[in-house]
Design brief:
Chain A: This is Response regulator transcription factor. The complex is a heterodimer of chains A (212) and B (520). Chain A is an alpha/beta fold. Chain A contains 9 helices and 5 strands. Helix content of chain A is 56%, strand content 12%. Classes of the chains: A alpha/beta (212), B alpha+beta (520). Chains A and B meet through helix 1 of A and helix 11 and helix 12 of B.
């Protein structure tokens, strides 16, 4: 069986492995390669940050104890920067307080060395799936924001009123315009926001609010 | 007793009869015409009057009586006395003089006697006070019946009582019953937890704990004709507690018999317990330090080892994945397998290096005289040996040289092995408990120190794993002692092995490298 060719390079997931032990890095990369997952190794968090986090989906596999910036510190740093790459931690010994901290901060999994290959692959698959979902959600929010940007000020005001569940009459009263005018704006909003139903429009309003 | 020695049985008033008697004699002597030496009767006056008179009074009374005799002679005969009358006067005067002198002598000797007696009483009272108020326990005991029993043994040719006691289990008890306590002091009541003296007096046997070792030693001292004994013993209080005591016994000269033997006991239980606690604490500290070191080392070694092992496992798993593909990716599988081998080698190298570091890091070998080693170790085990009731025999070959090892480690090894040996014999009859420590030259380059017990030996199936860490046959054992012993001896370049004796018991053989002999 030939390895599945990626439809588009940008869509192909990439796993970044950070461990100061080259033997572990090598083993990890080859394991991932054996199931057709692209992977890159880094000796330290610094090396990872210098290489930059590309747009490709995927996840990070970090050793908890790393020279310089530790795995947990990197996790905190990435979370603060809004870069929600899922993280799988590896540790030499089952350090419970550390694993609790990592999981609370949003780690996908916490694996103890030596790691069972299937556990690692399952964790990587779950992390990639989670990253995909995040990316899709972020893309949808970005699209809605782009549509909302085409609305006029008055249309935006009517949109907000609808999103809050107000009736046309109430919106007209609030804005000091006639109900007919509200209906006209509302039709424009539905068209510009590419909403086929009122429910669809309200969902997009929700995405906008989240992105704000 | 005082009354008997000092008193005259008559009334205190009889001497008041002396002056009238003197007057009566004077009257009879002067105014009657009896042709006899009436004046001799003044002797009676002297005797009656003597008791309350001082020395001077006695002399005056004597002179007075003589004066009266002479006066009455003068009155009745005047100057024309015949020879017989003068002779009678002379006899009377002589009698009075002799009586006076005898009385004077009697008085002086009585005064001396009284003074001596008073001194004796004071001395008696003082010693009684010392006996009573001594802050250590004193026993006055009657050994009179022990003497003949020992004499009989001596006549039968017995010289080693310990040996005799081992062969005749009832021997010590029968002799203990012959020792009778006559008196004890206040401190003894405290020591024994007794309310009244009567609780403690009588046969001694009931206060001796089951171990008769000290008693046998005391009897041995008596048998050897020594005049005193000092040593350590134990005594069973009325409250059932056994006290460890320092024992001092003085046997009087053979002539006095053994009916008054003074025994002193000093309670050293608390001191011994403190000592014991100290030793236990020290041993525990050493063990804890060892465990802590082992713990810290194993944590760091575990961490170091986990890296290559983690990579190794992952590579092996990946290798399998490459092989299970359809078709198998042999090139990738080989690469993974090669990495597996490399990681395995790395792990192994790490173990070797750690071991080397440990062994080198802590060794402080020196040249040790094995005899001295035993001398250092045995006092530390004094209590254990005493408590075990075992005999410890040493057999040291004459020409054994020094060994090359760490002194502290060798001490620990011996303490461990001897302690094990004593424990192994705990269930055997006391007479059979014997631990033999032997030192001999195994060959030109090795010295053999062996510890042989007469316990139950080691079960065949336990022999191969006896030195494994965490293997133990003791209910409360950690299973580290022998493992550490073997490690210590091997670190010194020697070997530790065990074998069962054909006639029961186990022997641990420590073969240690001999120190190069100094060129003479």
């Amino acid at each position: 069986m030939a390895r599945p060719a990626p439809p588009r390079a940008a869509e192909q997931p990439l796993v970044r492995v950070v461990d100061d032990d080259p033997a572990i890095r090598e083993a990890m990369l080859d394991l991932l390669r054996s199931v057709g997952i692209d992977a890159m190794g880094f000796a330290s968090t610094l090396a990872l940050l210098e290489a930059g986090l590309s747009a490709r989906p995927g996840c990070l596999v970090l050793d908890v104890r790393l020279p310089g910036v530790s795995g947990l510190d990197l996790q905190a740093q990435l979370a603060a920067g809004g870069d929600g790459l899922p993280i799988i931690f590896m540790t030499g010994h089952g350090d419970i307080p550390m694993s609790v901290r990592a999981m609370k901060a949003g780690a996908v999994d916490f694996l103890t060395k030596p790691v069972r290959d299937q556990d690692m692959l399952d964790a990587v698959a779950a992390a990639i799936a989670r990253d995909r979902e995040h990316r899709e959600a972020r893309a949808a929010a970005a699209r809605v924001a782009a549509l909302a940007a085409t609305l006029t000020r008055r249309e935006r005001e009517v949109f907000d009123g609808v999103a809050r569940g107000l009736m046309n009459k109430q919106i007209a009263g609030d804005l000091g315009i006639t109900e007919i005018t509200v209906k006209l704006h509302r039709g424009n909003v539905m068209r510009k926001m590419e909403a086929r139903t009122l429910a669809d429009l309200i969902r997009k309003a929700g995405l906008l609010a989240e992105g704000a | 007793m005082m009354q008997d020695m000092a008193g005259w049985p008559a009334s205190h008033w009889h001497h008041l009869a002396a002056p009238p008697l003197a007057l009566l004699i004077f009257a009879v002597d002067t105014f009657t015409d009896l042709m006899s030496a009436i004046a001799v009767l003044y002797v009676l006056v002297m005797l009656i009057a003597a008791r309350p008179l001082t020395r001077r009074g006695l002399i005056l009374a004597g002179i007075g009586c003589q004066g009266l005799a002479i006066l009455s002679f003068a009155i009745s005969h005047g100057l024309g006395a015949n020879v017989s009358a003068v002779l009678r006067l002379a006899v009377a005067l002589a009698a009075i003089l002799i009586t006076t002198m005898l009385l004077l002598r009697d008085q002086a000797s009585r005064a001396r006697l009284m003074a001596t007696h008073a001194a004796l009483t004071r001395s008696e009272r003082r010693y009684r006070l010392i006996f009573e108020n001594a802050r250590f326990s004193l026993w006055e005991q009657d050994y009179a019946q022990v003497g003949p029993a020992l004499a009989a043994l001596r006549a039968a040719g017995v010289t080693d009582l310990a040996d005799h006691a081992r062969r005749h289990p009832g021997f010590a008890d029968s002799l203990a019953a012959l020792i009778v306590t006559i008196d004890v002091n206040e401190a003894t009541l405290e020591l024994m937890g007794a309310q009244r003296r009567a609780d403690v007096l009588g046969p001694l046997g009931r206060f001796l704990p089951p171990d008769r070792g000290a008693l046998v030693q005391v009897l041995q001292a008596l048998l050897d004709g020594r005049d005193h004994f000092e040593g350590r013993g134990a005594i069973l209080g009325l409250d059932g507690r056994v006290r460890t005591v320092l024992l001092g016994i003085t046997f009087p000269e053979e002539g006095d018999g053994l009916s008054r033997v003074i025994t002193s006991l000093v309670d050293i239980t608390a001191r011994e317990e403190t000592q014991e606690a100290l030793l236990a604490a020290r041993a525990e500290l050493a063990r804890a330090a060892r465990v802590a070191t082992v713990g810290a080392l194993s944590a760091s070694i575990a961490h170091e080892l986990n890296q290559p092992l983690g990579a190794l496992v992952m590579n092996a798993q990946t290798c399998l994945r490459w092989l299970r593909r359809d078709p198998p990716d042999i090139a990738s599988a080989s690469a993974a397998a090669e990495r597996t081998v490399r990681d395995g080698m790395r792990a192994s190298e790490l173990v070797r290096k750690t071991r080397g570091m440990l062994v080198k890091g802590e060794r402080q070998d020196e040249t040790i005289d094995p005899r001295q080693l035993l001398e250092e170790v045995l006092p530390l085990l004094d209590r254990e040996i005493g408590a075990s009731g075992a005999r410890v025999a040493t057999r040291i070959a004459p020409d054994v040289g020094g060994i090359r090892a760490s002194r502290i480690e060798m001490q620990q090894v011996l303490i461990n092995l001897i302690g094990n040996g004593l424990q192994a014999m705990a269930q055997r009859p006391a007479a059979l408990r014997e631990l033999t420590l032997a030192i001999e030259a195994a060959d030109a380059d090795h010295v053999l120190i062996s510890v042989a017990d007469r316990g139950t030996g080691i079960r065949e199936e336990d022999l191969p794993k006896l030195f494994d860490p965490f293997f133990t046959t003791k209910a409360d054992g950690m299973g580290l002692g022998l493992a550490i012993c073997r490690a210590a001896i091997e670190a010194a370049g020697g070997s530790l092995s065990v074998r069962n004796r054909a006639d029961g018991g186990a022997v641990f053989d420590c073969l240690l490298p001999a120190a190069a002999r100094q060129a003479a």
